[in-house]
Design a protein that fits this description.
The protein is an alpha+beta fold. It has a single domain, classed as Aspartate Aminotransferase, domain 1, CATH 3.90.1150. Strands 3, 4, 5, 6, 7, 8 and 9 form a seven-stranded antiparallel sheet that branches. The termini are far apart. The N terminus is likely disordered.
Length: about 160
């Protein structure tokens, strides 16, 4: 197992990452766009998870980016942010567009002329903990247990007299 600094996910035990975290980071490093977020991996609060067929990157307890390598509009970087930050972020990084399906987020398509430069600027903003970037995950509602079914009495089979 790999030794790590610390993760906000609580997946650390005695300074060692659990297997799921180690596998997620290894998968991120193999991802088509994984090199774009190398600067985030060494941050103490970094966490990677599989999501939407891509890799979600969390920092400072917030989901920041999802790297996706399917067909457009799922080929590039989804930027997790709120509607209120769109104009400001698009002014800073004009290559970003509103994602055509998930309109609450911005999108940096692989076909953008300055794809790598813009992704690098996004990583820098994330490292600076820019408040315009990232969304907090909503805590999951506790699962409700199914109501216990009443037990049916077992059918009694009469003894054969034979």
């Amino acid at each position: 197992m790999a030794v790590a600094r610390s993760l906000s996910s609580g997946r650390m035990r005695d300074g060692v990452q659990d297997n799921a975290t180690t596998r997620a980071i290894a998968r991120l490093r193999r991802h088509r766009y994984g090199a774009l977020v190398d600067g985030l991996i060494d941050e103490p609060s970094f966490l990677a998870k599989s999501m939407f067929g891509g890799m979600a990157c969390y920092l400072h307890g917030r989901m920041m980016l999802i790297l996706t390598d399917r067909r457009p509009p799922w080929r590039g970087v989804l930027v997790a942010t709120g509607h209120e930050s769109h104009a400001s972020l698009r002014q800073t990084l004009p290559t970003l567009i509103v994602h055509p399906i998930i309109s609450k987020w911005l999108y940096l398509g692989e076909d953008a002329p300055d794809f790598e430069e813009c992704a690098g600027e996004l990583v820098e903003l994330i490292l600076q903990d820019d408040p315009r970037l990232g969304v907090e995950s909503k805590p999951r509602a506790p699962r409700r247990r199914a109501a216990a079914k009443p037990k049916r009495p077992k059918a009694r089979v009469p003894k054969s007299r034979g």
